[in-house]
Design brief:
Length: about 375
Protein backbone atom coordinates (compact mmCIF):
# COMPACT_ATOMS: atom_id res chain seq x y z
CA UNK A 1 0.00 0.00 0.00
CA UNK A 2 1.24 3.50 -0.81
CA UNK A 3 0.53 6.05 1.92
CA UNK A 4 1.04 9.80 1.60
CA UNK A 5 1.52 11.86 4.73
CA UNK A 6 1.21 15.63 4.65
CA UNK A 7 3.02 17.37 7.51
CA UNK A 8 6.20 15.99 9.06
CA UNK A 9 5.72 17.54 12.52
CA UNK A 10 5.12 15.67 15.78
CA UNK A 11 2.24 13.60 14.44
CA UNK A 12 3.15 13.24 10.75
CA UNK A 13 6.57 11.66 11.31
CA UNK A 14 5.12 9.36 13.98
CA UNK A 15 2.37 8.16 11.64
CA UNK A 16 4.96 7.72 8.87
CA UNK A 17 6.96 5.45 11.21
CA UNK A 18 3.85 3.39 12.02
CA UNK A 19 2.89 2.97 8.34
CA UNK A 20 6.44 2.12 7.22
CA UNK A 21 6.85 -0.38 10.07
CA UNK A 22 3.74 -2.15 8.77
CA UNK A 23 5.27 -2.46 5.31
CA UNK A 24 3.70 0.51 3.51
CA UNK A 25 5.60 2.73 1.12
CA UNK A 26 5.35 6.21 2.56
CA UNK A 27 5.56 9.57 0.81
CA UNK A 28 6.15 12.40 3.24
CA UNK A 29 5.56 16.04 2.35
CA UNK A 30 5.82 19.22 4.42
CA UNK A 31 5.64 22.84 3.27
CA UNK A 32 8.82 23.36 5.27
CA UNK A 33 11.49 20.99 3.90
CA UNK A 34 13.87 21.77 6.78
CA UNK A 35 11.23 20.34 9.11
CA UNK A 36 11.17 17.08 7.13
CA UNK A 37 14.97 16.83 7.26
CA UNK A 38 14.88 17.38 11.02
CA UNK A 39 12.06 14.88 11.46
CA UNK A 40 13.90 12.20 9.45
CA UNK A 41 17.06 12.77 11.47
CA UNK A 42 15.08 12.28 14.69
CA UNK A 43 13.41 9.19 13.27
CA UNK A 44 16.83 7.73 12.48
CA UNK A 45 17.85 8.33 16.11
CA UNK A 46 14.66 6.67 17.38
CA UNK A 47 15.24 3.64 15.14
CA UNK A 48 18.88 3.40 16.30
CA UNK A 49 17.65 3.38 19.91
CA UNK A 50 15.15 0.62 19.11
CA UNK A 51 17.98 -1.41 17.55
CA UNK A 52 20.16 -0.69 20.62
CA UNK A 53 17.41 -1.98 22.91
CA UNK A 54 16.98 -5.01 20.60
CA UNK A 55 13.35 -4.12 19.95
CA UNK A 56 13.95 -4.34 16.19
CA UNK A 57 16.78 -5.70 14.06
CA UNK A 58 19.22 -3.44 12.20
CA UNK A 59 17.82 -4.84 8.96
CA UNK A 60 14.26 -3.93 9.93
CA UNK A 61 15.32 -0.43 11.00
CA UNK A 62 16.97 0.10 7.60
CA UNK A 63 13.89 -1.21 5.85
CA UNK A 64 11.57 1.15 7.78
CA UNK A 65 13.74 4.14 6.99
CA UNK A 66 14.13 3.29 3.31
CA UNK A 67 10.36 3.01 2.89
CA UNK A 68 9.86 6.69 3.76
CA UNK A 69 10.40 8.93 0.77
CA UNK A 70 10.73 12.62 1.33
CA UNK A 71 8.82 14.68 -1.29
CA UNK A 72 9.29 18.25 -2.35
CA UNK A 73 5.99 18.52 -4.26
CA UNK A 74 2.50 17.31 -3.45
CA UNK A 75 2.34 16.03 -7.05
CA UNK A 76 4.61 13.15 -5.92
CA UNK A 77 1.47 11.72 -4.22
CA UNK A 78 0.03 10.60 -7.57
CA UNK A 79 0.16 6.84 -6.76
CA UNK A 80 -1.10 7.04 -3.16
CA UNK A 81 -3.88 4.71 -2.02
CA UNK A 82 -4.36 6.64 1.21
CA UNK A 83 -3.32 10.13 2.28
CA UNK A 84 -3.22 11.17 5.94
CA UNK A 85 -3.00 14.91 6.55
CA UNK A 86 -1.27 16.07 9.75
CA UNK A 87 -0.59 19.78 9.21
CA UNK A 88 -1.44 22.84 11.27
CA UNK A 89 -4.88 22.78 12.97
CA UNK A 90 -6.51 25.36 10.68
CA UNK A 91 -9.60 24.60 8.64
CA UNK A 92 -8.90 26.99 5.75
CA UNK A 93 -5.29 25.80 5.30
CA UNK A 94 -6.32 22.13 5.49
CA UNK A 95 -9.13 22.69 2.96
CA UNK A 96 -6.75 24.28 0.46
CA UNK A 97 -4.38 21.33 0.78
CA UNK A 98 -7.22 18.83 0.23
CA UNK A 99 -8.45 20.69 -2.84
CA UNK A 100 -4.94 20.63 -4.34
CA UNK A 101 -4.61 16.97 -3.44
CA UNK A 102 -7.86 16.02 -5.15
CA UNK A 103 -6.39 17.26 -8.44
CA UNK A 104 -3.39 14.94 -8.04
CA UNK A 105 -4.52 11.58 -6.63
CA UNK A 106 -6.72 8.96 -8.31
CA UNK A 107 -10.49 8.76 -7.67
CA UNK A 108 -9.90 5.64 -5.55
CA UNK A 109 -7.47 7.29 -3.16
CA UNK A 110 -8.82 7.68 0.40
CA UNK A 111 -8.19 11.12 1.87
CA UNK A 112 -8.07 11.56 5.65
CA UNK A 113 -7.25 14.05 8.38
CA UNK A 114 -5.60 13.56 11.76
CA UNK A 115 -7.36 16.67 13.10
CA UNK A 116 -8.07 16.72 16.86
CA UNK A 117 -10.91 19.17 16.73
CA UNK A 118 -12.14 20.23 13.30
CA UNK A 119 -15.41 18.69 12.10
CA UNK A 120 -14.76 15.92 9.57
CA UNK A 121 -18.06 16.72 7.84
CA UNK A 122 -17.06 20.37 7.39
CA UNK A 123 -13.66 19.40 5.92
CA UNK A 124 -15.22 16.81 3.57
CA UNK A 125 -17.90 19.17 2.30
CA UNK A 126 -15.24 21.28 0.55
CA UNK A 127 -14.12 18.32 -1.57
CA UNK A 128 -15.41 17.31 -5.00
CA UNK A 129 -15.83 13.77 -3.69
CA UNK A 130 -16.61 13.95 0.05
CA UNK A 131 -17.46 10.22 0.22
CA UNK A 132 -13.77 9.25 0.20
CA UNK A 133 -12.94 11.49 3.16
CA UNK A 134 -12.63 10.29 6.79
CA UNK A 135 -10.99 11.23 10.10
CA UNK A 136 -8.12 9.02 11.30
CA UNK A 137 -7.08 10.39 14.68
CA UNK A 138 -3.83 9.09 16.16
CA UNK A 139 -2.60 9.93 19.66
CA UNK A 140 0.76 11.38 20.61
CA UNK A 141 3.30 9.73 20.35
CA UNK A 142 1.74 7.87 17.41
CA UNK A 143 4.19 4.92 17.39
CA UNK A 144 3.54 4.24 21.10
CA UNK A 145 -0.11 5.08 21.75
CA UNK A 146 -2.26 2.19 20.54
CA UNK A 147 -5.55 4.04 20.06
CA UNK A 148 -6.79 5.38 16.73
CA UNK A 149 -10.21 7.06 16.51
CA UNK A 150 -11.85 6.58 13.11
CA UNK A 151 -14.39 9.28 12.36
CA UNK A 152 -16.70 9.05 9.38
CA UNK A 153 -18.42 12.36 8.58
CA UNK A 154 -22.04 12.68 7.47
CA UNK A 155 -20.95 12.49 3.82
CA UNK A 156 -18.42 9.65 4.16
CA UNK A 157 -19.13 6.46 2.21
CA UNK A 158 -20.72 3.96 4.63
CA UNK A 159 -18.21 1.11 4.22
CA UNK A 160 -15.09 3.26 4.52
CA UNK A 161 -14.91 3.27 8.35
CA UNK A 162 -14.75 -0.55 8.47
CA UNK A 163 -12.10 -0.59 5.76
CA UNK A 164 -9.91 1.83 7.73
CA UNK A 165 -10.68 -0.13 10.92
CA UNK A 166 -9.14 -3.28 9.37
CA UNK A 167 -6.21 -1.31 8.04
CA UNK A 168 -5.46 0.18 11.47
CA UNK A 169 -5.64 -3.30 13.01
CA UNK A 170 -3.12 -4.48 10.44
CA UNK A 171 -0.89 -1.58 11.54
CA UNK A 172 -1.02 -2.96 15.09
CA UNK A 173 -3.35 -0.26 16.38
CA UNK A 174 -6.51 -0.45 18.49
CA UNK A 175 -9.14 1.30 16.39
CA UNK A 176 -12.48 2.64 17.60
CA UNK A 177 -15.22 4.25 15.54
CA UNK A 178 -16.51 7.61 16.73
CA UNK A 179 -19.26 9.98 15.66
CA UNK A 180 -18.20 13.32 14.22
CA UNK A 181 -18.82 15.37 17.38
CA UNK A 182 -16.50 17.98 18.97
CA UNK A 183 -13.60 16.19 20.68
CA UNK A 184 -14.72 12.84 19.16
CA UNK A 185 -14.51 10.31 22.05
CA UNK A 186 -11.37 10.92 24.11
CA UNK A 187 -11.02 14.68 23.93
CA UNK A 188 -14.70 15.08 24.80
CA UNK A 189 -15.03 12.58 27.67
CA UNK A 190 -11.71 13.61 29.27
CA UNK A 191 -12.65 17.31 29.58
CA UNK A 192 -13.82 17.15 33.24
CA UNK A 193 -10.56 15.47 34.30
CA UNK A 194 -8.92 18.84 33.70
CA UNK A 195 -11.92 21.19 34.04
CA UNK A 196 -13.15 19.97 37.41
CA UNK A 197 -9.60 19.79 38.80
CA UNK A 198 -8.98 23.39 37.71
CA UNK A 199 -12.21 24.50 39.33
CA UNK A 200 -11.34 22.80 42.64
CA UNK A 201 -7.95 24.57 42.61
CA UNK A 202 -9.44 27.88 41.47
CA UNK A 203 -11.86 27.83 44.41
CA UNK A 204 -8.99 27.08 46.83
CA UNK A 205 -10.63 23.84 47.90
CA UNK A 206 -7.35 22.00 47.36
CA UNK A 207 -3.92 22.61 45.84
CA UNK A 208 -2.85 21.13 42.49
CA UNK A 209 -0.49 18.74 44.27
CA UNK A 210 -3.29 17.53 46.55
CA UNK A 211 -5.64 17.02 43.59
CA UNK A 212 -2.95 15.12 41.66
CA UNK A 213 -2.16 13.00 44.71
CA UNK A 214 -5.85 12.22 45.28
CA UNK A 215 -6.39 11.10 41.68
CA UNK A 216 -3.22 9.00 41.70
CA UNK A 217 -3.80 7.31 45.05
CA UNK A 218 -7.59 6.88 45.03
CA UNK A 219 -8.10 6.56 41.29
CA UNK A 220 -4.89 4.85 40.23
CA UNK A 221 -4.44 7.37 37.41
CA UNK A 222 -0.82 7.33 36.24
CA UNK A 223 -0.71 11.11 36.38
CA UNK A 224 -2.88 13.69 38.10
CA UNK A 225 -4.67 16.35 36.03
CA UNK A 226 -2.10 19.10 36.67
CA UNK A 227 0.88 16.86 35.95
CA UNK A 228 -0.83 15.80 32.74
CA UNK A 229 -1.70 19.38 31.69
CA UNK A 230 1.96 20.32 32.26
CA UNK A 231 2.99 17.43 30.00
CA UNK A 232 0.46 18.11 27.23
CA UNK A 233 1.14 21.86 27.32
CA UNK A 234 -1.28 24.17 29.10
CA UNK A 235 -1.88 26.18 25.91
CA UNK A 236 -2.66 23.05 23.89
CA UNK A 237 -5.02 21.69 26.56
CA UNK A 238 -6.71 25.10 26.87
CA UNK A 239 -7.20 25.35 23.13
CA UNK A 240 -8.87 21.90 22.97
CA UNK A 241 -11.21 22.92 25.81
CA UNK A 242 -12.08 26.19 24.07
CA UNK A 243 -12.84 24.37 20.81
CA UNK A 244 -15.07 21.77 22.47
CA UNK A 245 -16.85 24.56 24.40
CA UNK A 246 -17.54 26.76 21.37
CA UNK A 247 -18.38 23.83 19.07
CA UNK A 248 -20.97 22.64 21.58
CA UNK A 249 -22.62 26.06 21.35
CA UNK A 250 -21.22 27.15 24.73
CA UNK A 251 -22.52 24.26 26.77
CA UNK A 252 -21.64 25.24 30.38
CA UNK A 253 -20.38 21.69 31.03
CA UNK A 254 -17.28 22.50 28.99
CA UNK A 255 -16.70 26.07 30.14
CA UNK A 256 -12.95 26.79 30.16
CA UNK A 257 -11.12 27.87 33.30
CA UNK A 258 -9.91 31.38 33.95
CA UNK A 259 -6.97 29.96 35.88
CA UNK A 260 -5.89 28.01 32.80
CA UNK A 261 -6.29 31.11 30.64
CA UNK A 262 -4.05 33.12 32.96
CA UNK A 263 -1.42 30.36 32.96
CA UNK A 264 -1.44 30.36 29.15
CA UNK A 265 -1.19 34.17 29.06
CA UNK A 266 1.77 34.06 31.43
CA UNK A 267 3.40 31.43 29.17
CA UNK A 268 3.56 29.10 32.15
CA UNK A 269 2.87 26.27 29.73
CA UNK A 270 4.27 23.30 31.63
CA UNK A 271 7.30 21.15 30.91
CA UNK A 272 8.03 22.79 27.55
CA UNK A 273 8.61 26.21 29.15
CA UNK A 274 10.14 24.82 32.34
CA UNK A 275 7.25 25.97 34.50
CA UNK A 276 3.53 25.32 34.65
CA UNK A 277 1.60 24.13 37.66
CA UNK A 278 4.97 22.68 38.75
CA UNK A 279 8.50 24.00 38.45
CA UNK A 280 10.76 21.91 36.19
CA UNK A 281 13.96 23.89 36.65
CA UNK A 282 17.04 21.93 37.68
CA UNK A 283 17.05 22.36 41.44
CA UNK A 284 13.32 22.76 41.92
CA UNK A 285 11.65 20.42 44.38
CA UNK A 286 8.17 19.12 43.78
CA UNK A 287 5.90 20.31 46.61
CA UNK A 288 4.76 17.62 49.02
CA UNK A 289 0.99 17.53 49.25
CA UNK A 290 -0.64 17.88 52.63
CA UNK A 291 -2.50 14.57 52.90
CA UNK A 292 -6.12 14.78 53.95
CA UNK A 293 -8.24 11.63 53.60
CA UNK A 294 -11.63 13.32 53.64
CA UNK A 295 -10.62 16.05 51.21
CA UNK A 296 -8.98 13.50 48.87
CA UNK A 297 -12.21 11.48 48.79
CA UNK A 298 -14.23 14.63 47.95
CA UNK A 299 -11.84 15.50 45.12
CA UNK A 300 -11.89 11.99 43.68
CA UNK A 301 -15.70 11.63 43.95
CA UNK A 302 -16.22 14.95 42.23
CA UNK A 303 -13.88 14.37 39.29
CA UNK A 304 -14.74 10.72 38.72
CA UNK A 305 -18.48 11.45 38.86
CA UNK A 306 -18.10 14.15 36.20
CA UNK A 307 -16.07 11.77 34.00
CA UNK A 308 -18.52 8.89 34.37
CA UNK A 309 -21.47 11.20 33.65
CA UNK A 310 -19.71 12.30 30.46
CA UNK A 311 -19.13 8.68 29.39
CA UNK A 312 -22.79 7.83 30.09
CA UNK A 313 -23.92 10.82 28.02
CA UNK A 314 -21.62 9.71 25.17
CA UNK A 315 -23.24 6.26 25.39
CA UNK A 316 -26.72 7.81 25.33
CA UNK A 317 -25.86 9.85 22.23
CA UNK A 318 -24.30 6.84 20.51
CA UNK A 319 -20.96 8.63 20.04
CA UNK A 320 -19.45 5.12 20.05
CA UNK A 321 -20.52 1.68 21.19
CA UNK A 322 -19.85 0.71 24.84
CA UNK A 323 -16.81 -1.38 24.02
CA UNK A 324 -15.19 1.44 22.04
CA UNK A 325 -16.01 4.03 24.73
CA UNK A 326 -14.23 1.87 27.31
CA UNK A 327 -11.25 1.08 25.06
CA UNK A 328 -10.79 4.68 23.99
CA UNK A 329 -10.19 6.04 27.49
CA UNK A 330 -7.86 3.20 28.45
CA UNK A 331 -5.82 3.11 25.26
CA UNK A 332 -5.90 6.81 24.32
CA UNK A 333 -5.24 8.43 27.72
CA UNK A 334 -4.20 5.46 29.89
CA UNK A 335 -7.17 5.53 32.26
CA UNK A 336 -6.88 2.55 34.62
CA UNK A 337 -10.43 1.35 33.87
CA UNK A 338 -13.22 1.99 31.42
CA UNK A 339 -15.53 4.67 32.82
CA UNK A 340 -18.77 2.71 32.30
CA UNK A 341 -17.38 -0.26 34.25
CA UNK A 342 -16.04 2.15 36.86
CA UNK A 343 -19.51 3.67 37.29
CA UNK A 344 -20.93 0.23 37.90
CA UNK A 345 -18.22 -0.50 40.45
CA UNK A 346 -18.74 2.73 42.41
CA UNK A 347 -22.51 2.52 41.94
CA UNK A 348 -24.38 4.74 39.50
CA UNK A 349 -26.67 5.77 42.38
CA UNK A 350 -23.68 7.26 44.20
CA UNK A 351 -22.45 9.05 41.05
CA UNK A 352 -25.91 10.55 40.60
CA UNK A 353 -26.01 11.63 44.26
CA UNK A 354 -22.61 13.38 44.03
CA UNK A 355 -23.68 15.29 40.92
CA UNK A 356 -27.04 16.21 42.45
CA UNK A 357 -25.29 17.69 45.50
CA UNK A 358 -22.96 19.74 43.29
CA UNK A 359 -25.91 20.86 41.17
CA UNK A 360 -27.78 22.08 44.23
CA UNK A 361 -24.72 23.70 45.77
CA UNK A 362 -23.64 25.61 42.65
CA UNK A 363 -27.01 25.95 40.90
CA UNK A 364 -25.16 25.44 37.65
CA UNK A 365 -26.04 23.46 34.54
CA UNK A 366 -22.45 22.29 34.50
CA UNK A 367 -23.46 19.57 36.98
CA UNK A 368 -26.57 18.36 35.15
CA UNK A 369 -26.86 14.61 34.88
CA UNK A 370 -27.16 12.63 31.69
CA UNK A 371 -30.78 11.51 31.36
CA UNK A 372 -29.40 7.98 31.11
CA UNK A 373 -27.52 8.10 34.42
CA UNK A 374 -30.50 7.51 36.69
CA UNK A 375 -31.64 4.66 34.46
CA UNK A 376 -28.27 3.02 35.01
CA UNK A 377 -28.55 2.98 38.80
CA UNK A 378 -27.47 -0.39 40.13
N1 LIG B 1 0.34 17.01 18.80
C1 LIG B 1 -0.59 16.23 19.26
O1 LIG B 1 -0.58 15.80 20.44
C2 LIG B 1 -1.72 15.81 18.34
C3 LIG B 1 -2.44 14.63 18.64
C4 LIG B 1 -3.45 14.22 17.75
C5 LIG B 1 -3.74 14.99 16.63
N2 LIG B 1 -3.03 16.13 16.39
C6 LIG B 1 -3.37 16.88 15.16
O2 LIG B 1 -2.39 16.57 14.16
C7 LIG B 1 -2.17 17.69 13.30
C8 LIG B 1 -0.68 18.05 13.32
O3 LIG B 1 -0.30 18.33 14.64
P1 LIG B 1 1.26 18.32 15.08
O4 LIG B 1 1.26 18.39 16.57
O5 LIG B 1 1.98 17.23 14.38
O6 LIG B 1 1.72 19.72 14.48
P2 LIG B 1 3.21 20.25 14.20
O7 LIG B 1 3.17 21.71 14.35
O8 LIG B 1 4.22 19.47 14.97
O9 LIG B 1 3.42 19.88 12.63
C9 LIG B 1 2.67 20.45 11.61
C10 LIG B 1 3.50 20.45 10.33
O10 LIG B 1 2.66 20.86 9.25
C11 LIG B 1 3.46 21.64 8.37
N3 LIG B 1 2.55 22.45 7.53
C12 LIG B 1 1.85 23.54 7.90
N4 LIG B 1 1.10 23.98 6.85
C13 LIG B 1 1.34 23.14 5.83
C14 LIG B 1 0.84 23.05 4.50
N5 LIG B 1 -0.03 23.94 4.02
N6 LIG B 1 1.29 22.04 3.71
C15 LIG B 1 2.17 21.13 4.17
N7 LIG B 1 2.69 21.18 5.43
C16 LIG B 1 2.26 22.15 6.25
C17 LIG B 1 4.35 22.45 9.25
O11 LIG B 1 5.51 22.87 8.55
C18 LIG B 1 4.67 21.45 10.37
O12 LIG B 1 5.87 20.75 10.12
C19 LIG B 1 -3.09 18.79 13.81
O13 LIG B 1 -4.27 18.75 13.06
C20 LIG B 1 -3.35 18.39 15.27
O14 LIG B 1 -4.58 18.87 15.75
C21 LIG B 1 -2.03 16.55 17.20
Amino acid sequence: MVVGIIGSGTMGIGIAQVAATSGCDVFLFDANSTQTEKALLNLQKTLDQLVGKQKISLEKSRMIFSRIKCCTELSDFIDCDLVIEAIIENKEIKTKVFQNLEEIVSDQCIISSNTSSISITSLSSELKNPERFIGIHFFNPAPLMPLVEIIPGLLTEKKLARKIYSLMESWGKIPVIAKDVPGFIVNRIARPFYGEALRIAEENIATPEQIDDAMRTLGNFRMGPFELMDLIGIDVNFSVTKTVYTDYFYDPKYKPSLLQQRMAEAKLLGRKTGKGFYDYSENAEKPTPEKDGELYQTIFDRIISMLINEAVEAKRLGIANDEDLELAMQKGVNYPKGLLAWGFEIGYGKISETLQKLYEEYQEERYRQSPLLRGMEN
